[in-house]
Amino acid sequence: MMRAMPAPDTRMRLFDRALLRRRRDRVAASFDEFDFLLRRAAEDVAGRIAAANRHFAVAADLGAHRGALAHALTEQGIGTDKIGLLVSSDMSLPMLAGAPGLRVAADEEALPFAPASLNLVTSILSLHAVNDLPGALIQIRRALQPDGLFMAAIFGGETLTELRQSFAEAEIELEGGLSPRIAPFADLRDIGGLLQRAGFALPVADTDRVTVRYRDPIRLMADLRGMGETNIMTERRRTPLRRATLMRAMEIYREKFGLPDGRVPATFDIVVATGWTPHESQQKPLRPGSAEARLADALANPAGRPRSGT
After folding, report:
1. Can you list the domains of the chain with their CATH numbers?
2. Based on the number of CB atoms within 10 Å of its own CB, is 73 exposed (0-12), middle (13-18) or buried (19 or more)?
3. Structure pTM?
4. 121-151: per-residue pLDDT in tens?
């Protein structure tokens, strides 16, 4: 008897996830030296969780790295009265070994959680590297119970725009073309729309723009290596970067973006997105035509004073 061959996977693979896992494995031991952006985002998300008037019995943190969110919750005094059980999940076992509490090795592209088994799902600076973000969001929504909360910090917008522009100009000038080096990042509006498409209610997204000042661009690239955030694009050039191209890109970086004190900026846009799984208790938008006052009247009489003759 012949075994049926599986259908080929024709989905676009923008990122090499196996390479991402290997790089996270490699940097895990020294990651605490480079996790300043992760800690900032985790502290922000932890504060928002604390502000929610809700108890979350079971929560999962996807792409947990070394447990940045768990540590931030502890530092802010957020305990089991707010989150009963927190499961830290990451595709890298060496990275996950640094997370406290219950841990599950899993890829954000194939979640192991049963439908409606979670009350809260978080992700800190990890979902920007999934190949199918809409699909991942749908999996997350299915894993949440009705009225469950999803909250994620995602690199987006103009993240690393200076480095992207500098390499693009250097390659065009010296090599006559471009190669994929820095991944595209979704902007604020795109992320809000993706939440709606995935079936989340009451979606909200806002951006924390972080500008890091470096002595030189090479130091920025060293930090990116330490974070495990170097190029994992499947269409990346497999040959080593030419030294002349690298040096020219660094020159352009300084020329275009250099600061008066000789340092250079690096932009990181951290988009914090939240959404709830639908539930009948949630606030609903008014039906068209159900308002008790006309917008035209309010605009014509903004102070709310009685009109003459009334």
Report:
1. 17-159+184-211+266-277 (3.40.50.150)
2. buried
3. 0.85
4. 999 999 999 999 999 999 999 999 999 999 9
| pLDDT of the residue at 287 | 58
Per residue in 79-116, pLDDT (tens digit) is 999 999 999 999 999 999 999 999 999 999 999 999 99
Model pLDDT, residue 288: 52
Confidence of residue 11 (pLDDT cuts 50, 70, 90): low
